[in-house]
Design goal:
The chain has 258 residues and is an alpha/beta fold. It has seven helices and eleven strands. The longest helix has 28 residues, at 230-257.
Length: 258
């Protein structure tokens, strides 16, 4: 079999206590030349599972989403980097597309320095290609030499110098196990988002709480056609609106205490 020359790629994953999902994630990046794991203190079988796929595993105390991924990026050594979370999976179509990009890059045919991947959520026994989360493009495939990690917790992001393009293949996202997990995650994320609002000097008015929460509901249920998912669409839109209310309610509480 002829081996087509291509540029190299490192996949990096930051994780903690992800034994339930990380094997699926790791299987989907086996095509990469290097798999980098940055763990912040797993006490389950996460590290044991990771060791089956790579020996490049490091411990790094959790300092927030941005700093954790910035550190992980620094552990990579290949021409390109692919960031994937433990609850994500590179689809077969996306794997093939990435390999084509790497081959084209080796041949000097790729001008872009980054590619945005479209995440599709699997939740409540369905793929959510309508209802608010889709399409969701994230810059996750980048030329390492021109990439840094930035953003603001919890919304970290890759920052790339130069042109970017979109990939057609999808990144599968198994966000939540059930509604209990969904609500728990929304509570945690809203606390992180509130901290960012406080740093920016934002205020929590009654208008902001009502308007932003209602706008979120309309986006998920009406604009993104969540109503076509029946009861599931109504539930997701309502919880999303609640998460916005929670974020600004926590901001109001913090301002009140200070």
């Amino acid at each position: 079999m002829t081996h087509t020359p291509r540029s190299t790629i490192s996949a990096f994953i930051v994780c903690c206590n992800e034994e339930r999902q990380i094997r699926r994630c790791l299987e989907s990046v086996r095509f990469c030349d290097e798999i980098v794991i940055v763990d912040s203190g797993s006490t389950d079988r996460t590290l044991q599972i990771c060791s089956e796929y790579t020996n490049k595993i490091t411990h790094h105390e959790w300092q927030g989403y941005v700093l954790q991924k910035r550190y992980a990026l620094g552990q990579c050594s290949s021409d390109w980097v692919l960031n994937i979370d433990a609850d994500e999976e590179v689809s077969v179509e996306l794997q093939e597309e990435i390999l084509e990009i790497l081959q084209g890059d080796k041949a000097g045919r790729v001008a872009a320095n980054g590619f945005l991947l479209n995440r599709v959520v699997f939740f409540l026994d369905r793929w959510w290609r309508k209802g608010g989360w889709y399409p969701e493009y994230r810059l996750r495939l980048c030329r390492r030499s021109v990439t840094k990690w930035g953003g603001e917790d919890p919304h970290e992001k890759a920052e790339v110098s130069g042109d970017t393009k979109r990939c057609k293949g999808e990144l599968h996202h198994y966000s939540f196990t059930d509604l209990t997990d969904y609500v728990r995650r929304m509570n945690t994320l809203s606390s992180n988002a509130t901290s960012s609002l406080i740093r920016r000097g934002a205020s929590a008015s009654a208008v902001a709480i009502i308007f932003r929460s209602f706008a979120r509901f309309l986006k998920f249920y009406v604009s993104k056609r969540g109503f076509r998912e029946g009861m599931a669409g109504l539930i997701v839109a309502s919880i999303e609106a609640y998460s916005v209310l929670l974020k600004y309610a926590k901001l109001w509480e913090a301002r009140k205490k200070s």
